[in-house]
């Protein structure tokens, strides 16, 4: 039952027994002190790990919040890009229409230039005709004067 009970320990005095227990107790206390120091080191290490884990948790929470904001911004940008693509398509169509209109206007300008040239020619012809009529009228006037002078 007791490891110290045997024939040797039963003859020992109390002081002798204490003398035998003292090195065992000293060794046990040394082991206990070492374990206590290790426990304190482990406690400090666990506290540091807990603080580190809390900091990392805060960092992860921050990153997740920022990730959510970035995802929202990306979704908005995608919508904006889709709208811009639609606008660019509409602008391309408008540019094609404008090109057709410009080509039509160029044709119209060419036609107008031709018409203006024709009108200039017609005006020149009319001026010549008027000049000829004036000359003819001068002859008619002189002949009328001659006829009037003979009649009077």
* Class by alpha and beta content: mainly alpha
Give the C-alpha Rg.
61 Å
End-to-end CA span:
187 Å
Q: What is the mean pLDDT? A: 91
> Which quaternary structure do these chains form?
single chain
Compressed to H and E, one letter per element, the order equals HH
Key words describing this protein structure:
single chain; 152 residues; mainly alpha; 2 helices
Helix and strand topology:
Layout: H1 7-10, H2 14-151
Please explain how this structure is put together.
This protein has one domain. The protein is 93% helix and 0% strand. The chain is rod-shaped. The protein contains 2 helices and no strands. It has 152 residues and is an all-alpha fold. The mean pLDDT is 91.
């Amino acid at each position: 039952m007791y490891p110290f009970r045997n024939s040797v320990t039963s003859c020992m005095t109390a002081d002798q027994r204490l003398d035998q227990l003292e090195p065992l107790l000293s060794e046990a206390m040394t082991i206990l002190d070492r374990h206590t120091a290790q426990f304190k080191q482990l406690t400090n290490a666990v506290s540091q790990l807990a603080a580190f884990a809390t900091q990392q948790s805060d960092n992860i929470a921050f990153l997740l919040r920022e990730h959510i904001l970035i995802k929202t911004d990306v979704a908005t940008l995608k919508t904006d890009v889709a709208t811009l693509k639609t606008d660019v398509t509409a602008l391309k169509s408008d540019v094609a229409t404008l090109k057709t209109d410009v080509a039509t206007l160029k044709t119209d300008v060419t036609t107008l230039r031709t018409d203006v040239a024709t009108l200039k020619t017609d005006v020149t012809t009319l001026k010549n005709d008027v000049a000829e009529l004036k000359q003819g009228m001068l002859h008619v006037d002189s002949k009328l004067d001659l006829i009037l002078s003979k009649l009077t």
